[in-house]
Amino acid sequence: MSRKQRRIQAIRYATAHEMQRHAVAAARPTAPKPDAKPPEQTARSVRKKRHYRVPTNALASIACLLCCTATLYGAIFVAPAGSPARKQASAAIKTAATKQPFVPIARHVAAASAKKSAPLTKVAEVLNDPCAKGSILNIVAHEDDDILFMNPTIENDIAAGMCVHSVYVTAGDDGQPSSYWELREQGPDAAYATMAGLPDNWQDSTTTLNGHPIQVHTLEGLPNLSLIFLRLPDGNLGGEGFASTKYESLLKLRNGTIPSLVTIDSTSSYTTQDLIAQLVSIMELTKPRVINTQAFSDILANGDHADHQAVGYFTTHAAQAYHGKAQLRRYIGYQVNTMSSNLSPAQTSTKQTVFSAYEHEDAMMCTTPSEDCSDPAYTGYLSREYQQDHN
Predict the structure, then answer these.
(1) Which of 279, 292, 294, 287 is nearest to 329 (CA)?
(2) Which pLDDT band holds residue 106 (cuts at 50, 70, 90)?
(3) Which range has the worst mean pLDDT, 60-64, 228-232, 265-269, 272-276?
(4) What phi, psi does 18 have (nearest 5°)?
(5) Model-level pTM?
(6) Position 98 confidence tier, pLDDT thresholds 50, 70, 90
(7) Given this structure, which CATH class describes domain 37-368+375-382?
(8) Strand 163-170 vs strand 135-140: parallel, antiparallel, or unpaired?
(9) Of the candidates 356, 312, 296, 292, which has an alpha carbon nearest to the alpha carbon of residue 156?
(10) Domain limits of the chain?
């Protein structure tokens, strides 16, 4: 058994053990411990204190989000039908979309526009414009989606001096315990630091927006680059969810199967209107002229991850409620493997370097810093980048 297989086996064992422990604990009520640590003193924040500085003022992290204008880039490519090889695995997406059609966009847009964010006024009073070359907002489902499907565009934006902010809607937990997804959050940190050509040192903070705690990472030495984590649960490939999170998913939230979705750390929950309003608030704070997200359509549902589709759907709703002017670009996910390579060898090599920085923080892919984690399943993504043609 390889090191990677042993690591995966260990994580799965830990998941089963943790679920059993929680089940036993739930069966007998226990008194709260008076010396329990507050939420911000989690294992991750303590571990990060080795070389990361946490701002004392939570609003300081949000202040790093504001930018002004943006430049437009790239050609829009037409997406073909999904990969036949993935049709069976993704049948749940098509079935759910057929039986439970999308809720009308107008209703959600109105709800998001009407909902006010309490912190926004206070934040706006202290914000300054840290860059004049434009703001780019990336909104994706998982911690590697932007690196795999929106690069080298993101790296080019960073090199051009633009403000770049990326939102990760799910924790990318894959049904695993917190020991996995907390470490995985450091993957984008490493990848973006590599793209920026700076040390992998970040300021981490937990702040509240619209009543929901969010995690914000800001790169030291480049305050106009930030990563935002909403920590909703990974919904599994077909949107069926995982036992560890009660089989809840973004797809079920989108289709109205469940009324709300609880975050993986149990600190908050989102209805459809809540999630759209949260994305709108982030747009209002960052003021992007370009919003990059993931493609969605009934055709693309065959062969793509259900979370990719759902995030594209929610972001599209939010972009319509955003009061600024932004161009929405939707990037194709797993189906790019069925398309022709469109990146040069040099671009592919650079993209591989960036992805390698990420995967060494993902325990499902790498177990040691020196391990060669190259996975043939990801090779096709590294030589391709396509946008969905849409109106």
Answers:
(1) 292
(2) very low
(3) 60-64
(4) -65, -40
(5) 0.72
(6) very low
(7) alpha beta
(8) parallel
(9) 292
(10) 37-368+375-382
